Amino acid sequence: MGRLKTLLQWLFFFSTIGLAAARGRIYNLDVRRELKSPNSYKKLVITINGKCPGPTIQARQGDIVFVRVTNRMGEKVAIHWGGTQQIEGLGSDGAGGVAPRPISPGKAFMYRFTVHRLGKSPYSSYYRMQTEDGLHGLIDVLPPYGMAKPFAHDYDRSIILDDQYYKSNYDRAAETESLLIPGKGKFDCTESTTPSSHPTACNAINPEYSHWRVVPGKTYRLNISSVTAQSTLSFRIECHNLTVVEADGHYAEPVQNLVVDSGNTYSVSVKANQDPSRNYSITTNIVGQNATATTPTPLGLAVLSYSPPAGPIWNYVTP
Fold it and tell me: Are 225 and 160 in contact (CB under 8 A)?
């Protein structure tokens, strides 16, 4: 019965492609738990095809997307495709646990939907703590073939903001313990709420940060999404203005500090027009957090630098 159902799905797929001008996009996502250290602290996270965050689902406006999700975990899974209207995707999105139905351990399910809205938006688990454990990624909807993007830029980069906890799924009402940009950050090992006997469980000496290089004079489009559990985050790049070019069809004046709620996505334009000989911090912080708290959540941190030959200069040697 399972093979027959899969065969019928593929037959429907090919018949759909033959009847419509849209193209079909096929993805296979393998979901499992693996031991990784996204922010200096080694723990079990959820990976998609071995990655955390998962791979980007890319299609063009009007395409039909087929995503086969295989659940390799010991718990049920259901995925919400953020930003998709699901006009022709009956059973592929909706109320969690009802539509789509959860995927049982060891089983697979084929999601099918047509993408209409341009831009990038996050996909994530219907079960919030699975999202926090790494079950999330991006959907990237490009203009139809022959049409250019509405805003000119030289390079494009996607950023997922995330918050992390180290308690059990039933004990996460407290403050966020660290922030990731994207998928990397630092955790204060002295504040560990789940001590481990593993000697390398927490690496406070060599934490991993995202490091992005830009070319002087170029314009970058950053697609910033948030999948936090309960935090509204600010986002800024030191000394660089962020011009919002896409946010639910609205536009705004240049800002230096962007506020992003969970589930939201903004596209911002950034000009690489600062001193190329130094590095610049990229930070995210919890909006409204009590700065005098005993153990405030540390800043999420990444680094921006300018590419050679203009800079930066390391150890007084020009690259």
Answer: yes
| DSSP states along the chain | -HHHHHHHHHHHHHHHHHHSSSPEEEEEEEEEEEEE-TTSB-EEEEEETTBSS---EEEETT-EEEEEEEE-SSS-B-EEETT---TT-TTSSSSTTTSSPPBPTT-EEEEEEE--S-EEEEEEESSHHHHHTT-EEEEEEEPPTT---SS--SEEEEEEEEEE--S-TT---S---EEESSS-----GGG-SS--S-TTSB-SSS----EEEE-TT-EEEEEEEE--SS--EEEEETT--BEEEESTT-----BSSEEE-TT-EEEEEEE--S-TTS-EEEEEEETT--TTSSSPPPPEEEEEEEPTTT---BTTB--
The alpha-carbon radius of gyration of the chain (Å, integer) is 21
Taking only the tens place, the pLDDT of each residue in 18-48 is 434 568 899 999 999 988 766 556 778 899 9
Omega within 30 of 0 (cis) for the link into 53: yes
The number of distinct structural domains making up the chain is 2
- Domain termination residue (choose one: 115, 142, 169): 142
Q: Which of 24, 25, 28 is nearest to 15 (CA)?
A: 24
- Please state the pTM of the whole predicted model: 0.70
Closest CA to 233 of 125, 128, 160, 126: 160
Domain around 233 = 155-306
Q: What is the CATH number of the domain that holds 29?
A: 2.60.40.420
Average pLDDT of the chain?
Answer: 75
